[in-house]
Amino acid sequence: MTKTARKERFIWLDIMITLVALELMSCFYYGMRSAVLGGICIVVSLITEMICLRLMSRRFTADDLTCTSDALIIALIMPATMDYKIVAIACIFAVVAAKNVFGGRKNIIFSPAAAAYIFVLTSWEKMLLLYPEPHAKTGIFDEPEGLVNSVSYVYNTTGKMNHTDFELLMGNFSGPAGSVSILMLLIAAVMLILRKDISAGAFMGTIIGTAFLSYIVPASPTAKIGYNFVTNMVIFAAVYIISDRRIAPKRQYYAFFYGLFIAVFSYVIVITTGKENAIVIVSVLFTPVSLGIKNLEKKIDLARSEASEYATVNISTDAKYDDESEIVEKMEDISHE
Amino acid sequence: MNKKKSSIFSGMLGNNIVLSSLMVVSPVIICGDTLKNAAALVYAFSAITFLSVMISSFVPTKLSYTVKIIIYAIISSFVYIPVKLAAQEFFPGAVERIGIYFPLLAVNSLIIFRSEAELYKLPKDHMIVKLIFYILGFDAVMIATGFVRELFAYGTINGRIVDVNTPVIGLAQPFGGFIFLGLFCGLYRCIRSAVINKKEDIRSDADVSCK
């Protein structure tokens, strides 16, 4: 097994651990239906992935299990009461149209989960944006009742927050199943950044961009900066969608600006239109930016390797550089050129 | 001879103008969300294209390319007028629903480019057959797209409700049309390459030795 393949599997494993923790929190607030939803997503995604790989004449390997983390992300960005058929369709869409059509696991250009979210948003907006209250547990086969608008919707439209900071931190407010557990998300973010499983630059860019704009242009005079992180899935998207290493630029510097621009645009959309969870939509719209930056990175790498090769050849043929420091200087000069 | 024959009929399956050449895709993507729209577009495309190409085939070949293209566009614009009047009678409301894509059919790429590049180089009888199969190819894709998108997006077939309890509204929107047509093209190319490979296998396996 190659080092990169092993690394890819460890990243998947770490992400899965944090997602399962969020799923457990979701089960605590919304009951077993949330776990069933996650299970359906995983099973449907796995089967679809296997079929797609079979059609592409490829073998299913352990690396292809990354589809299960995307499946869990889909389950966690939807209401716990979402129709099972709809999440199944969303998972099929994510695996087929958002992933394998573009060449599969190694050619992912945007988060399959984010694309599936947008797909569901365009087709079943009312179902997607109505959530159960925390602790109002719906049975596995029961019809959901007493659904309400999310806290994000109330905050976007009125600028008011009717929950205490402790409630917000613990995720005791209505919203998508997994993206409301703020404390758990922060722990997951720290863990994943320290283990280099997500792009720290993109994460920091998103957080700093949101914080900066929240300070400059607050949603209302009484609004705290922190409210803009707990609403509209900002932290969840920052961790699992924007900072996804398969999508974000490799260099932290570029990744930072990638995250920053997404945060700025999504905040502007939220402030001007009140659109709920705009960050997920903007992250997909920023696909060309990410691809452009990645191409730029490739060109820089290529130019550097060519320059260093050129420098090595020049130095080896040049006898006048006896001192080692002179050789280093010469290499740097040529690299700059 | 067989090869020549198959190339004439290939406009329907082997060389479909929508699925293979990606020509005239915008009406399919934007307006092909119901069977009614599809039927109106099929009528308009078939009538405009067939009549325009047939009339344009009498334009002298000695004229320069630019002049010929302008003449083709003028002819198809004239053909468009009676076709639109008839559409308002046969498909009431369709012209308004389809909007700008209806008049745009008058300058579709089959009339403007493919006719000059390919059709007018053939003998008249072959040209007519090939043109008809190109048109049928477009019609088949349009009808199939309209049928599937209407069924899954609205849960109806030609306006009649059928038992689809989870309609996917997104499929009726342009982005749904893009995705559907993309998957349709992929499936078409997959089947086409499989058929071509099979034919090549049969040819290479054929025993040509004299016993």
Secondary structure elements and pairings:
The complex is a heterodimer of chains A (337) and B (211).
Chain A: H1 3-30, H2 32-55, H3 66-76, H4 84-96, H5 112-123, H6 125-128, E1 130-131, E2 148-149, H7 151-158, H8 165-170, H9 182-194, H10 200-216, H11 227-230, H12 234-242, H13 252-273, H14 278-285, H15 287-317, H16 324-336
Antiparallel strand pairs in A: 1-2
Helix pairs in contact in A: 1-2, 1-3, 1-9, 2-3, 2-4, 3-4, 3-5, 4-5, 5-14, 10-12, 10-13, 13-14, 15-16
Chain B: H1 2-9, H2 25-30, H3 35-56, H4 65-90, H5 94-98, H6 101-104, H7 109-117, H8 124-154, E1 156-157, E2 160-161, H9 174-205
Antiparallel strand pairs in B: 1-2
Low-confidence stretches of chain A: none
**Helix-residue proportion of chain A:** 55-70%
Instruction: Provide the gyration radius of chain B in Å.
Output: 19 Å
| The CATH C-level class name of chain A | Mainly Alpha
- Read across the widest sheet of chain A, the strand sequence of neighbours is 1-2
Order of helices and strands of chain A: HHHHHHEEHHHHHHHHHH
Q: Give the beta-strand count of chain B.
A: 2
| Broad structural category of chain B | mainly alpha
- Please, what is the average pLDDT of chain B? 86
Please, how many domains of chain A? 1
- How many individual domains of chain B? 1
Distance between the termini of chain A: 39 Å
What does this protein look like?
The complex is a heterodimer of chains A (337) and B (211). Chain A has 16 helices and two strands. Chain A has 337 residues and is mainly α. Chain A has a two-stranded antiparallel ribbon. The model of chain A has no long low-confidence stretch (mean pLDDT 88). Chain B is flat, with a radius of gyration of 19 Å. In chain B, helix 4 (65-90) packs across helix 7. Chain B has helices at residues 2-9, 25-30, 35-56, 65-90, 94-98, 101-104, 109-117, 124-154, 174-205, and strands spanning 156-157, 160-161. Chain B contains nine helices and two strands, in the order H-H-H-H-H-H-H-H-E-E-H. Chain B starts with a helix and ends in a 6-residue tail after the last helix. Chain B has 211 residues and is an all-alpha fold. At the A-B interface, helix 4 and helix 5 of A face helix 9 of B.
